Amino acid sequence: MTVAYKQQSADRLQESLGLVQRLIERQRQLEHLATRPDAVETAADPLALQHNLQELGHKLSQLHPADIAHVLEALPLEDRLLAWDLTDPSRDGSVLLEVSDAVRESLIEVMEPDELVAALDELDADELAELAPDLPRQVVYEAMGRLDEEERGQLQSVLSYDDDRVGALMDFELVKIRADVSCEVVLRYLRRFDELPGQTDKIFVTDEAGLLKGVLSVRKLLVSDPDTLVAEAMATEVVSFHPTSRRWTRPGLRTLRSGQRAGGGRARRAAGRLTVDAMVDVIREESDSEMLNLAV
């Protein structure tokens, strides 16, 4: 059964962090008591250590991966590694995606290669690409071996771009449709999905060759007459980035109308998309870097 985890509000998250910190502090106290010569007399419950660890693990199991990341980042290294050891291994990959680079490095450092490969098993190609620079090369190779041919090609495509290029941030999960079908056909097509890719607020309209013709917002789709053709409802002015452009530079950002050509007369191909999460992560990383530079 799939469990849906909901991110907590800022206040609730601080409460959760405080509880985790108290449980870890109690764990240290119990461990100290256990090492004393009179441990038998001072320990009220011989199973207190195990019970406290179980309570800590249970609390972590109730948190969203992003909230676990917040908790890990707030803890000193020794306490962080204790909490990480008690995190459900099936969620390791999701948590590694959420933590900062420095914390991610400290977590990966204590993981065995087989644990890392297992953590990557549930990740998409673009998510794996995000972690790849921080992983041992052999782990990346093993993880790639588990992907199908299409996903492997997507991963290799992302890894071919430097970190400061737009292509390194591409998400390959995008919904594409044709312009010559009706909105009713599109709705029937969407209902075939178990769930839509995260942050899907628009659908990409392409031709037979996969060239981008426009976008159809989900909001527009829902209020349009079912018989309306996608070509009539879609927006033809599209914000697009070239994969080799530097992130967020003016030359890399273009607003193009359908039918125009981009860069040297070549048509645009819908290779991937940039999500809000990816952009926010970049902004956060750059802000953290600036703060560190100011502190030096």
Describe this structure in words.
This protein is mainly α. Among the domains are: 11-88; 176-283, CBS-domain. It contains 15 helices and five strands. The chain has helices spanning 10-35, 39-42, 48-61, 65-74, 77-85, 92-98, 101-109, 113-120, 125-131, 137-145, 149-159, 183-190, 218-223, 230-233, 276-295; strands at residues 176-177, 202-206, 212-217, 237-241, 253-257. The strands form two sheets. A three-stranded mixed β-sheet has the order 1-2-3. A two-stranded antiparallel ribbon has the order 4-5. Helix 8 packs across helix 10. It is elongated. Residues 249-266 have low confidence and may be disordered. It comes from Chromobacterium violaceum.
Features:
single chain; 296 residues; mainly alpha; CBS-domain; 15 helices; 5 strands; 8% strand; MgtE_N_sf
The largest β sheet comes out as: 3 strands, mixed
CATH superfamily of the domain at 176-283: CBS-domain
Q: Give helix % range.
A: 40-55%
Element-level helix/strand string:
HHHHHHHHHHHEHEEHHEEH
**Could you give the count of β-strands?**
5
- Uncertain spans, ≥5 residues at pLDDT below 50? 249-266
Distance between the termini: 48 Å
Mean pLDDT: 80
Number of helices: 15
**CATH uppermost class of the domain at 176-283:** Alpha Beta
Rg over CA atoms: 24 Å
Q: Give the overall shape, derived from the CA principal axes.
A: elongated
Question: How big a fraction of the residues is strand?
Answer: 5-15%
Tell me the CATH architecture of the domain at 176-283: Roll
Cross-sheet strand order for the largest sheet: 1-2-3
